[in-house]
Amino acid sequence: MSVLRDMVNYVLNLGAPVFVPIIMLIIGLVARLKTSKAVKAALTLGVAFSGMTLVVNYMMDSISPAAKSMSKLFHLSLNAIDAGWTGVAAITWSYKSAFLFFPLLLLINFVMLTFNWTKTLNVDMWNVWNKIFTYVVVYYVTGNAIFGFLVASIQIVFELKGGDMWQRHIEDLTGIPGVTVPHLIALFAVLLMPLNKLLDFIPVMNRPADANALQKKIGIFGDNTVMGAIIGALLGLGAGYSVSGSAKLAIEAAAAMTLFPMISKLFMEALSPIADAMNTMMKKKFKGREIFIGLDWPILAGRNELWVTVIILVPIELVMAMLLPGNTVLPFAGIINLSFVVAALLLTGANLWRMITLGIITTPIFLYGATYFAPIITKLAKTTGAVKVQAGQQLSWSTFEAPDFRLFFAQAFNGKWWAMIMVIAWILGFVWLYIDQNKIPVPSKRYVTNLGEIAVDESKTDDAKKQNLKSYSNAKIADIEGLDFSNVSKSKSSKKITISDLDGVDFSNVKR
């Protein structure tokens, strides 16, 4: 056991930018990708993870001081310290049974792949910590370690099925083929689903509202860089910064908003050849079966709708922390609410109006969740000795990840009848979400314009656009010689056709 624990700790100490590329290199070689291409893809993936981590930390380091300053202006003083996800993750990794969850994840994933119960191969080993944390929550609530392992196993199953469900939406949002996000963070969509369905009845919520659509409507003010600068400046002024301080925050936010899409292209460059090789191998061995590679959520971080939403929610979280009766948590380290926004991005198809609306409605769930779980997180910190907690204080996480799942399942196994009902409701909600997301159009084809046309997502890279158009680019006038147009009818709305109109048109489906 000690040898296994030492091996796991050694791998973890390498960090995700190192061990994930190593895993992907192995997968690429197993899939018979050329060695030089596999090595280059793995190194590019490491660069992408490192770059995204740098920019995310840069963004959070810029926003967090403003949030702290804003909390002073609001005279907030609450006794639960917000450690954020990084603090809770560090404490969780120190738990004595942490190393057991690697083989648990691999075993469940292997069994589900073998029996074709999932298409997702989860290589996101870093986020094993949130399975460990679920175990700790259930164990502390029920006093039963077996129940802890059981609920953690249930979580793994739902994450893998979630990976299957989200894959085509993630590919549409990022342009990266064959990858998905089997992360608990995305399963908050189960709670968001009925709220999002209610928004269907509001006309403005059914119009294109991603960053590109906004830029078309409001011009330069919808540009990523300009939008980041405006939001940063407003946040700085709201936090009581001087004009120079607000200007500095504006430039920092603009820089992050500009760099996110640039770095996200590296994920595509790294993962596309590996995904293609994996799918080719699976088609040969399993008669056309697909395998999706499960990665951490930062592959979605290039979508600026995500960052616009979380920044706008910062002052809203602080106001609610002050006004909500019974709340004990002051948002600080976890004030960038990633626990909400990833699920909202996927569920709404990057619709900013829906994301912001859902964020405002559900922020109290996170604050009350953080208040409820503060004693458990504090106990975990004291048990592991990873963090010292002063007398009279508690430790928590203001944007607590999956508070619904962990509360319902922990208390259901604790014998609470209301929690058992909520577990059944949650599972039914997941089934509803799963069916809906497998039927609903992908984000780029989901919302209609004022003319009733499908909105086109122009966030794809130039390479992706060229790939989509390559079947048309070689069409020539000579190609129509001898073609049968007898079944072609003239519509009422048709116009006169000139030779230039035929240039680039694909006639591959017309019979000769």
In short:
This protein is an all-alpha fold and 512 residues long. It contains 18 helices and five strands. α8 (189-199) packs across α13 (338-348), α10 crosses α11 (243-286) and α12 (304-323) packs across α14.
Q: How many β-strand stretches?
A: 5
Averaging pLDDT over every residue, what do you get?
Answer: 79
Structural class: mainly alpha
User: SSE order in H/E notation?
Assistant: HHHEHHEHHEHHHHEHHHEHHHH
Distance between the termini: 70 Å
What's the gyration radius in Å? 25 Å
What order do the helices and strands come in, and which of them pair?
Layout: H1 2-14, H2 16-30, H3 35-73, E1 80-82, H4 84-93, H5 101-114, E2 120-122, H6 129-142, H7 145-174, E3 179-180, H8 189-199, H9 211-218, H10 224-238, H11 243-286, E4 292-294, H12 304-323, H13 338-348, H14 352-384, E5 394-396, H15 403-413, H16 417-439, H17 462-473, H18 499-502
Helix pairs in contact: 2-3, 2-11, 3-10, 3-11, 3-12, 5-7, 6-7, 6-14, 6-15, 7-16, 8-13, 8-16, 10-11, 10-12, 12-13, 12-14, 13-14, 15-16
Which structural traits does this protein have?
512 residues, mainly alpha, 2 domains, three-stranded parallel sheet, 18 helices, 3% strand, sugar transport
Task: Give a verbal description of the structure.
The protein is an all-alpha fold and 512 residues long. The chain has 2 domains: 73-265 and 294-451, no CATH class; 468-502, no CATH class. Helices cover 64% and strands 3% of the residues. It contains 18 helices and 5 strands. The strands form 2 sheets. It has a 3-stranded parallel β-sheet. Strands 1-5 form a two-stranded parallel ribbon. The longest helix is centred in the middle third of the chain and has 44 residues, at 243-286. The protein is globular. It starts with a helix and ends in a 10-residue tail after the last helix. Mean pLDDT is 79; it is low at 450-480 and 489-499. It is a multi-pass membrane protein. The chain crosses the membrane at residues 12-33, 39-60, 72-93, 99-117, 137-158, 178-199, 220-241, 253-275, 306-324, 330-348, 355-374, 417-435.
